[in-house]
Specification:
- This protein is of the alpha/beta class.
- It has helices at about 10-20, 50-60, 70-75, 75-80, 90-100, 100-110, 125-135, 155-170, 235-255, and strands at about 1-5, 25-30, 40-45, 65, 85-90, 120, 140, 150-155, 180-185, 195, 200-205, 210, 215, 220, 230.
- It has three domains: about 1-95, Rossmann fold; about 115-185, Dna Ligase, domain 1 (2-Layer Sandwich), CATH 3.30.1490; about 190-255, ATP-grasp fold, B domain (D-amino Acid Aminotransferase, Chain A, domain 1).
- About 35% of the residues lie in helices and about 20% in strands.
- The chain is globular, with a radius of gyration of 20 Å.
- The two termini are about 35 Å apart.
């Protein structure tokens, strides 16, 4: 098989390393890749989706795997599928769950998937009013994609108001922050659980624990991720069952309905 991996980060390098171990993989390409991926395969300088599709057709690429969120939100899967190319990833419509925190929160509310109490707004006055109704810490989220950095866990009302103001003004994250989610803080440990779905059936991958904060002891701002490990001892069969019953199944049901 010839496989193209879209992306330029550590995620794509990890995907490439795993694929490299498969005897069925003949050749790996990365677009654009990074300084490490060129040791696993060939880096491409193509960024235009149509040109990438042309490359796949001209070079008989059997499978394309998309790593980052942005190309998914921008519709690379829809374009490849329209040209009969095999690609792994959600369509632009499904990728809204990742691309817009407002869409995601409203989707969860519509389909009774448990989530923190929240508002969505582009009004500083409305944001301040809701912030005043909550106890600190308070979570402020930019609506759009921010490379994993668009969530602020404010330790005081003043910090939350500053975060909301900076986002809504465009100072923090540009257009991605001009609409925000303000929500209550839920205390606990964070787990990442992925389910791969073909539209009907799904497979749950082992839970991972992601370290978002920049510094040790859960201090500092959130980042795109300082590291993750799997499996984690923080999850058991009971938690997996609850996740399937309360999150995965109603989410997939809601996606089919919409």
């Amino acid at each position: 098989m010839k496989i193209l991996v879209i992306g330029a980060g550590g995620r794509e390098y990890s995907i490439g390393m795993a694929l490299k171990k498969d005897d069925n993989v003949e050749k790996l390409y990365f677009a654009p890749g990074n300084g490490a991926t060129d040791e696993l395969g060939e880096n491409l300088t193509i960024s235009d989706f149509n040109e990438l599709a042309d490359f796949c057709e001209e070079n008989s690429i059997d499978l394309t795997i998309v790593g980052p969120e942005a190309p998914l939100v921008d519709g690379i899967v829809d374009l490849f599928e329209s040209r009969g190319l095999t690609i792994f990833g959600p369509t632009a419509s499904a990728a809204q769950l990742e691309g817009s925190k407002i869409f995601m929160k409203n989707f969860l509310a519509r389909h009774n998937v448990p989530t923190a109490k929240y508002i969505e707004t582009n009004s500083i006055e409305e944001a301040y009013k809701f912030i005043n109704s909550l106890e600190a810490p308070i979570v402020v989220k930019a609506d759009g994609l921010c490379g994993g950095k668009g969530v602020i866990i404010a330790q005081s009302h003043d910090e939350a108001k500053k975060a909301a103001g900076d986002m809504l003004s465009g100072n923090s994250f540009g257009y991605a922050g001009t609409s925000i989610v303000v929500e209550e803080f839920l205390d606990g440990y964070e787990l990442s659980v992925f389910a791969i779905c073909d539209g009907e059936d799904y497979v749950v991958l082992p839970a991972a624990q992601d370290h978002k904060r920049l510094l040790n002891n859960d201090e500092g701002p959130n980042t795109g991720g300082m590291g993750a490990y799997a499996p984690t001892p923080l999850v058991n069969d009971d938690i997996y069952r609850k996740l399937e019953d309360k999150v995965i199944n109603p989410t997939l049901k809601g996606m089919k309905e919409e």
